[in-house]
Amino acid sequence: SGAEPTHGITLPDTSTSTGQVKANAFVTYSSIRFKKDVQKLDNAMDIINQLEGVSYKWKDTNKQDYGFIAEEVGRVLPDIVEWHDGDEYATSMDYMRIISFLVEAVKFQHHKLNELEERVDNGSE
User: Fold this and answer.
1) CB count, 10 Å around CB of 15?
2) Handedness of CA 68, 71, 73, 79 (dihedral sign)
3) What Rg do the C-alpha atoms of the chain give, in angstroms?
4) What does the pLDDT look like over 70-115, one tens digit per residue?
5) Model confidence pLDDT, tens digit, residues 26-71
6) In the 8-state DSSP scheme, what is residue 84?
7) Within the chain, where are the H helices?
8) Helix H segments across 37-97?
9) Distance (Å, rounded) from C-alpha 11 to C-alpha 65?
10) How far apart are CA 25 and CA 23, in angstroms?
11) Are 57 and 65 in contact (CB under 8 A)?
12) CA distances (Å), origin 103, targets 55, 58, 124
């Protein structure tokens, strides 16, 4: 789309292959050596419940796809969304950052399920 690069690699905003990256793996720096103020995500289920997965078609190719609407995610997790300067529209979002919320939400559900199973096994309701 003619925009200047904003990252180490910036590809065109298109749903064709020219806007895609293919690799065997994407590795992210994650060592504790690079982090401070580390805290467990206590409200992961609340966050996940505010996100809405959607299906959609890309305007440029009519290709079917699945994901999120970045502007909506930005209202819940603003730190993982990049916004167009001075604009109401987002330019992109970091899907990978949602994984930590999903992991904690699954663990929360698992804990609640175990509690319910214990109550049933003990004959109480």
Assistant:
1) 17
2) positive
3) 19
4) 999 999 999 999 998 777 899 999 999 999 999 999 999 999 999 9
5) 999 999 999 999 999 999 999 999 999 999 999 999 999 999 999 9
6) -
7) 44-50, 70-76, 98-121
8) 44-50, 70-76
9) 18
10) 5
11) yes
12) 22, 29, 30
